[in-house]
Design goal:
This protein is mainly α. About 70% of the residues lie in helices and about 0% in strands. The protein is built from five helices and no strands. The mean pLDDT is about 90.
Length: about 100
């Protein structure tokens, strides 16, 4: 999970919008049974990277929905640093 997060984040920060790469990352994450192996920072980095890159692929909405469902199912957000929560909220605000 951390590797996927790092890849998406690096490409986004470098302003390299490789749609096929982002699509593969999204497809892989959406296909997972759950997101329990992702720590809060990795989750926020992934959605931030997609939103920052402005990548629009079919799997985007499924990816964001999966992350949202995972976060909403948590008992609390104690594991999230304020920056991670901020990044999540910013990324979701950029989605249409």
């Amino acid at each position: 999970p951390q590797n996927l997060s790092n890849i998406a984040l690096a490409f986004s920060k470098a302003e390299i919008v490789d749609v096929s790469l982002f699509e593969k990352v999204a497809e892989h994450i959406v296909a997972l049974d759950d997101l329990t192996s992702f720590d809060p920072q990795a989750l926020s980095n992934i959605v931030w990277a997609f939103a920052n890159a402005g990548v629009v692929v079919v799997e985007d909405s499924k990816l964001f929905a999966k992350v949202a469902d995972h976060v909403l199912a948590l008992d609390d957000l104690d594991g999230f640093r304020p920056q991670a929560i901020s990044n999540l909220l910013w990324a979701f605000s950029k989605c249409e």
